Amino acid sequence: MATPPKATIQRRLRQRPEAFAEVGHPVTRGGRKSETDVPERRCIATGATGPKAGLVRFVVGPDDHVVPDLAEKLPGRGIWVAADCAALEKAVSKGLFSRGAKRKVKADAGLPQMVSDLLAQRVVELLSLARKAGQARAGLEKVKALLVAEEAACLLQAADGSAREKTQLRPPKGENTYFSDLTAAELGLAFGRDRVIHAALISGGLADRVRYESTRLAGIRRNQD
User: Fold this and answer.
1) Percent of the chain having pLDDT more than 70?
2) Which domain range does residue 198 map to?
């Protein structure tokens, strides 16, 4: 798979954080400081520097294997890659993790799929928490009611749902308010059902976290085979 040009990755990094106040500032290059004091990291695959919201952190485990640190809490030197499948595949195939770690490390070919699965799991778990807190709804009519009342922070629809049915709903205005990267079965797990096609979240802290993780998942799954 061809790696997107650096400018494309930079544009994606720039677009994703706009929905999050804590990371809302332009991407910079070459380590230049931004206007706000928000941590930035450099992608080892593209060379683009941007807010952490558009990247995934990795660390090297005791066995010298690279592992994803999605919660950004594991000890050790952080190695950052854009939340983009092609960028991650390049980092694996070109041995860029060893360069980032400044020593020989092992990055399995299945790392992109692992990141995709773990991000999907995080989104499902957050959606489940939102449902239990009364901040998430599922089903066409319930979701439509939230959207009409302008109470929805974002709309999620199953990637394998009917395209015709999905066009019946319009996401809220703004950046990062629509996601269609989870399957119907994955969405169903969050709501205790076999399948869910439509879901929406009410504005709040959990909605922001779902959007944050969903944005990264969208980047990884966008070009995934």
Assistant:
1) 83
2) 118-222
CB 49 within 8 A of CB 65: no
Give the CATH number, domain containing residue 157: 3.30.1330.30
Per-residue pLDDT at 70:
96
pTM metric for this prediction: 0.80
CA–CA separation, 36 vs 8, rounded Å?
A: 23
22 lies in the same domain as 43: yes
pLDDT tens-place string over residues 120-137:
999 999 999 999 999 999
DSSP 3-state of 130: helix
- In a domain, residue 85? The reply is yes
- Residue 90 resides in a domain: yes
Please state the separation of Cα 14 from the chain's center in Å: 14
Is residue 205 within 8 Å of 218, Cβ to Cβ? no
How many structural domains comprise the chain?
Answer: 2
Full strand arrangement of the beta sheet holding 136-138: 136-138, 198-202, 152-157, 178-179
Task: Give the H/E segment covering residue 216.
Answer: helix 205-222
Taking only the tens place, the pLDDT of each residue in 143-185 is 999 999 999 999 999 999 999 999 999 999 999 999 999 999 9
